[in-house]
């Protein structure tokens, strides 16, 4: 039996009484990110059932009820919320958004200790009710938390990974599209490394409509992306979350949409290329740390990492990001 066959038997289908296959997503944490992610998943029709789990009984039940009142205007689905972990039973995908809230001026790394402590408590409880789920860590600092969660759970890196720089790459594409005057859907570019201050844009592999970005000459009077333009865009990507948090207290809309895209890649077995945070093994010399690189995401989780072309500067930047994360992970005993 090959690996694919073994994986197929390891992920049983969930079938209701009528025998028709359904899908279930559980979102852990009913705060700004978690509740918005549930909303985004429902609006996009990402799953047939969306479950919200939070220790705050009044909050999670209120969020679920508010969402349920709008089901008439969404693709057909069911939403449930509870402070009992059993609400996550047999979920296909579990999105973990619960964690310490990032305050203005606070880095994601500052959140590590409190969030790892929380994950170490809730992850075994979740595994007891949904051992076959694909686990996606969303809470920050996502790379450190993902690495710790793998150690805590013993799950393979295919089954547990982080949301990584999926959102950061969306920010990058938006800014490139805005500068160049093209549709964001025609921009292909990735942020890689840490979901945080040491992340880097992969300019060498970026393109617009098949044209390498570094060869882009501009359209309709818009010039190419100069080195200064690229530096400005990269700076904006890295710092945009801080600006949003300072202005409104939390980022929630875009990260929820990014999360729902990961959910769909898994449930629809899309084998979509997404820059999720995953455990690397000799990726451009980087091993034993979780960070984001373009990866294949489908029904069996995160199965492959793409060795996209990198310039020497990008390789150095990725290795620097890995070393920064590794030093933080070691501080917490991982």
CATH superfamily of the largest domain: Lactate dehydrogenase/glycoside hydrolase, family 4, C-terminal
| CATH architecture classification name of the largest domain | Alpha-Beta Complex
| β-sheet strand percentage | 15-25%
Q: N-to-C SSE series?
A: HEHEHEEHEHEHEEEEEHHEEEEEH
Spatial strand arrangement across the major sheet: 3-2-1-4-5-6
Short description:
The protein is built from nine helices and 16 strands. It has about 325 residues and is of the alpha/beta class.
Describe the structure.
- By secondary structure, the protein is of the alpha/beta class.
- It folds into 2 domains: 3-162, NAD(P)-binding Rossmann-like Domain (Rossmann fold); 166-331, Lactate dehydrogenase/glycoside hydrolase, family 4, C-terminal (L-2-Hydroxyisocaproate Dehydrogenase, Chain A, domain 2, Alpha-Beta Complex).
- Strand 4, helix 4 and strand 5 (134-137) form a beta-alpha-beta unit.
- The strands form 5 sheets. Strands 3-2-1-4-5-6 form a 6-stranded parallel β-sheet, sandwiched between helices.
- The longest helix is centred in the C-terminal third of the chain and has 22 residues, at 227-248.
- It contains 9 helices and 16 strands.
- The radius of gyration is 20 Å and the shape is globular.
- Helix content is 40%, strand content 16%.
- Pfam families: Ldh_1_C (PF02866), Ldh_1_N (PF00056).
- Residues 165-328 form the Lactate/malate dehydrogenase C-terminal domain.
Essential attributes:
alpha/beta; Rossmann fold; L-2-Hydroxyisocaproate Dehydrogenase, Chain A, domain 2; 2 domains; six-stranded parallel sheet; three-stranded antiparallel sheet; 16 strands; globular
């Amino acid at each position: 039996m090959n690996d694919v066959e073994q994986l197929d038997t390891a992920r049983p289908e969930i079938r209701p009484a009528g025998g028709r296959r359904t899908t279930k997503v559980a979102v852990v944490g009913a705060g700004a990110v978690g509740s918005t992610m549930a909303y985004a998943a429902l609006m996009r029709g990402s799953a047939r059932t969306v479950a919200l789990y939070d220790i705050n009984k009044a909050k999670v039940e209120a969020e679920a009820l508010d969402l349920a009142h709008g089901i008439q205007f969404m693709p057909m689905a069911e939403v449930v919320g509870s402070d009992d972990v059993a609400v996550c039973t047999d979920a296909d995908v579990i999105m973990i958004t619960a964690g310490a809230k990032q305050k203005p001026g606070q880095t994601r790394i500052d959140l590590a200790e409190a969030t790892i402590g929380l994950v170490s408590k809730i992850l075994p409880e979740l595994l007891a009710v949904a051992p076959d789920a694909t686990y996606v860590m969303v809470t920050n600092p996502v790379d450190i938390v993902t690495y710790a969660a793998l150690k805590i759970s013993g799950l393979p890196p295919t089954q547990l990974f982080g949301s990584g720089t999926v959102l950061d790459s969306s920010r990058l594409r938006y800014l490139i599209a805005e500068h160049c005057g093209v549709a964001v859907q025609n921009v292909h570019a990735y942020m890689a490394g840490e979901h945080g201050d040491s992340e880097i844009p992969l300019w060498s592999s970026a393109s617009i409509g098949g044209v390498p970005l570094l060869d882009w000459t501009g359209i309709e009077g818009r010039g190419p992306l100069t080195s200064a333009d690229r530096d400005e865009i990269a700076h904006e990507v890295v710092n945009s979350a801080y600006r949003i948090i300072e202005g409104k207290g939390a980022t929630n809309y875009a990260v929820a949409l990014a999360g729902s895209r990961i959910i769909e890649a898994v449930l629809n077995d899309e084998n979509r290329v997404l820059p999720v945070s995953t455990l690397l093994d000799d990726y451009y010399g980087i091993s034993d740390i979780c960070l984001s690189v373009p990866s294949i995401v489908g029904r069996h989780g995160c199965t492959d990492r793409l060795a996209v072309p990198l310039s020497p500067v990008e390789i150095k930047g990725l290795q620097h990001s890995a070393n920064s994360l590794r030093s933080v992970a070691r501080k917490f005993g991982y």
